[in-house]
Amino acid sequence: MAAPSRKQTLRFLSQLGAFILTRFGFWNCFTMLMLFAERADSKRKPDIPVPYLYVDMGAAVLCASFMSFGVKRRWFAVGAAIQLAVSTYASYVGEQVHYGDWLKVRMYSRALAIIGGFMVLASGAGEVYRQKARSRSLQSTGQVFLGVYLICMVYSLQNSKEDRMAYVEHIVGGEITLTLLEVLFGVLALAFLSGWYIRLAAQVLAVVLPLVILLIDGNLGYWHNSRKVEFWNQMKLIGHNVGIFGAVLILATDG
C-alpha cells in the first residue's frame, strides 16, 4: 500500500483544522451551559443576562451546524465571528462576573483569536474544492487577530504571575524555557501581523500549541485548585485553544 503523498497529507491536515474550528461552537455552548449550571448552585450570575444568553447560544449552534455541514460555510463563518464578537463584548461590558485582570487577558485574547480563525475560514482557506476566489483581505484580518492573541500570550508570560508559574513549575527548563517561549511567541506574532512567512509561522505554532494545551491548559489541578479558575471556565478556555489550533492548521497547510 502506497504511503500518502505530501499533497494528500496537507489536505487531510487542512480538513482536520476546518473540522475542529467548525465544531468549536458546539463545545463552547456546552461548556458555557455547564459553567452557568455550576454557578447556579452558588447563586452566581452568568456572563450574559439570561434572555440574551439563549439567543447567543442559538446563533452559535446555528452557525456551527451550517458550517459543519458545509452549507454556505463562508457566510456562516462570518456569522460565527460576529456572534462571538458580540457575545464577548456583552460579557465584557456587562461585568456581571468579576474576573482578575490576568484571567481577562486569557479569556478575551482567545476569543479574539477564534474570531480571527473564523475570518480565515470565511476567506475560503481550507476548502478542498474552492469554487470562489479566496478573500485575502479576510484572511489577513484573521491573521492579525491571531497575532494579537500571540502578543497577549507574551504579555501574560511577562506580567502575569499566574501564567508565569504555570510554565515555570510544569515545564522542563524553568525560566530559560519560559524566556525562549516569549521570544518564539513574539517572533510568531510579528509574522502573523505582517503576513510574512505566514505558513512557516503557522506550522511552528501548530507544533507548539498542542504542547501548551496538554501541559499548561490541561493542568486542571493548578488552574482550578491553586488559581481558583472555575472548572468549566478552564474547560472552555481549553476549547478555545483547540479551536485556535484548528485555525492554525488551516494556515499551516493552506495559508
TrEMBL record:
Keywords: Membrane, Transmembrane, Transmembrane helix. The chain crosses the membrane at residues 12-37, 49-69, 75-95, 107-126, 138-157, 178-198, 204-223, 235-253. InterPro entries: TMEM101 (IPR029371). Pfam families: TMEM101. It comes from the Eukaryota. PANTHER family: TRANSMEMBRANE PROTEIN 101 (PTHR31034:SF2). This is Transmembrane protein 101. It comes from Pagothenia borchgrevinki.
